[in-house]
């Protein structure tokens, strides 16, 4: 008797290879653009004699990103990922053209707003396209590639941007990005045609009600965007105007909290079993890791006498360890996905606790940096696992909204953590004591621990 077994699908095969390469191209392009701005922006504001617009240019894409996520989630579920992906590519093109040909700072800021809009549209539509075009068994490896594509931009992006800026001018940093967009788009065409030809998912009464609720939440997403924008600007001027800045941050936090209640899935704040718990854990993990990472270079500079270039080692550790953790979760380990998630959060909790020694004690810095590396591995394990769980707990009728909800939870929780930490630091700006940084890093470890405790609920409800 002859038995046959069905061949296990592979990611880098003729069938899936164009999609994989196209997605890699777009993710890498977005990563380089993200890393390049920080290097080129100081030169830009000096050229336009608009140093006061530096904070505005930095905050603009964060504000438009939130409302873009909400729109992208609704649009992708109603019309499929193709129109959303196309709008994201057009927005990205216009953003690069506006900034690259800017004659004044308002054009740069407008381009930055469009850049945030493009990022949200592309993030959600690519996730939905992957969900529809790839078998579920290949998704973990695909998401590990997402993380890996940030390594080169994180390590080489600032250097490459600096060289291009010095040799050819900062404009080519943005105009040159369009070169990679064209081949990436062409590679995605087969998967886009396949998705467009697929039958539309059936709409149930429950799904129609969820769509209506999501549409009603769009104004709250806009309110959250405005609150995030205001909070960022207030934080930049907190030292000069402490009362006005502190009041603005407090009001923005209230608006952001109210908006989060309206746009997040019901049960998120109690980590209800199923997808709400996934959203809750994504918010906790994102705030824990990003809230600490933003202040580590400053901690090393002030308390351990690192030069700015040496303090930047934390960014390299982040990129490499995050990608390594994401690669680990993509292997065939035969472990339940929630177990991988909890392992990542355990690594993050322990790693951040060790990292806090940099603030609380005079321990050798390499011990704290090893802790940060463990936290990075944990973030890679947990972040990619949450992306897999999001799609596992979704279907074609709601994968866009669910992807959007997870991304919005991370964005709002990170913004809240940074606002609170920034306010704490601003009121101690004259002579920041070790306890300020110690409290920030320890709070990150506590948030990761809460995520670890909530993670077992990130299973499909019975």
TrEMBL record:
Predominant place of localization: membrane
Q: Which UniProt keywords apply?
A: Membrane, Transmembrane, Transmembrane helix
What protein name is recorded for this chain? Answer: MFS transporter
Which Pfam family is one of this chain's hits?
A: MFS_1
Q: What is the lineage of its organism?
A: Bacteria, Bacillati, Actinomycetota, Actinomycetes, Propionibacteriales
Question: Signal peptide location in the record?
Answer: none
Transmembrane parts of this sequence: 12-32, 52-75, 87-109, 121-138, 145-164, 170-188, 212-234, 240-261, 273-298, 310-328, 340-360, 366-389, 409-429, 435-455
How does this chain sit within the bilayer? Multi-pass membrane protein
- Species annotation: Kribbella pratensis
Cellular localization per UniProt: Cell membrane
In terms of SUPFAM superfamilies, this protein maps to: MFS general substrate transporter
Q: Which residues form the Major facilitator superfamily (MFS) profile domain?
A: 19-459
């Amino acid at each position: 008797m002859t038995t046959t077994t069905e061949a296990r699908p592979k990611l880098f095969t003729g069938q899936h290879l164009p999609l994989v390469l196209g997605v890699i191209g777009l993710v890498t392009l977005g990563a380089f653009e993200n890393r390049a701005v920080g290097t080129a922006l100081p030169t830009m504001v000096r050229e336009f004699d608009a140093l006061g617009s530096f904070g505005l240019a930095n905050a603009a894409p964060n504000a438009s990103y939130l409302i873009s996520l909400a729109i992208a989630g609704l649009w992708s579920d109603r019309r499929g990922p193709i129109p959303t992906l196309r709008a994201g590519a057009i927005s990205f093109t216009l953003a690069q053209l506006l900034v690259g040909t800017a004659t004044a700072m308002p054009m740069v800021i407008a381009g930055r707003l469009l850049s945030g809009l493009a990022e949200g549209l592309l993030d959600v539509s690519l996730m939905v396209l992957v969900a529809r075009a790839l078998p579920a068994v290949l998704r973990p490896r695909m998401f590990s590639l997402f993380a890996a594509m940030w390594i080169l931009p994180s390590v080489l992006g600032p250097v490459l941007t600096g060289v291009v800026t010095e040799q050819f001018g900062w404009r080519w940093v943005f105009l040159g990005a369009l070169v990679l967009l064209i081949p990436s788009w062409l590679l995605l065409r087969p998967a886009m045609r396949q998705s467009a030809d697929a039958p539309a998912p059936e709409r149930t009464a429950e799904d129609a009600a969820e769509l209506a609720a999501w549409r009603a939440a769009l104004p709250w997403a806009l309110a959250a965007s405005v609150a995030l924008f205001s909070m960022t600007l207030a934080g930049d001027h907190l030292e000069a105007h402490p009362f006005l800045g502190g009041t603005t941050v407090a009001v923005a936090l209230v608006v952001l909290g109210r908006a989060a209640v309206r746009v997040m899935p019901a049960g998120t704040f109690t980590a209800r079993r199923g997808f709400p718990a996934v959203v809750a854990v994504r918010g906790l993990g994102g705030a824990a890791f990003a809230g600490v990472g933003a202040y580590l270079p400053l901690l090393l500079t002030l308390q351990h006498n690192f030069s700015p270039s040496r303090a930047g080692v934390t960014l390299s550790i982040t990129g490499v360890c995050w990608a390594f953790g994401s690669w680990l979760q993509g292997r065939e380990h035969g472990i339940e996905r929630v177990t991988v998630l909890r392992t990542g959060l355990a690594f993050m909790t322990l790693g951040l606790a060790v990292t806090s020694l940099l603030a609380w004690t005079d321990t050798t810095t390499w011990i704290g940096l090893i802790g940060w590396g463990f936290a990075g591995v944990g973030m890679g394990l947990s972040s990619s696992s949450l992306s897999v769980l999001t799609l596992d707990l979704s279907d074609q009728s709601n994968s866009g909204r669910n992807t959007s909800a997870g991304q919005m939870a991370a964005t709002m929780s990170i913004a809240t953590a940074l606002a609170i930490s920034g306010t704490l630091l601003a009121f101690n700006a004259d002579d920041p004591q070790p306890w300020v940084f110690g409290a920030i890093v320890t709070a990150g470890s506590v948030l990761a621990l809460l995520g670890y405790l909530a993670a077992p609920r990130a299973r499909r409800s019975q």
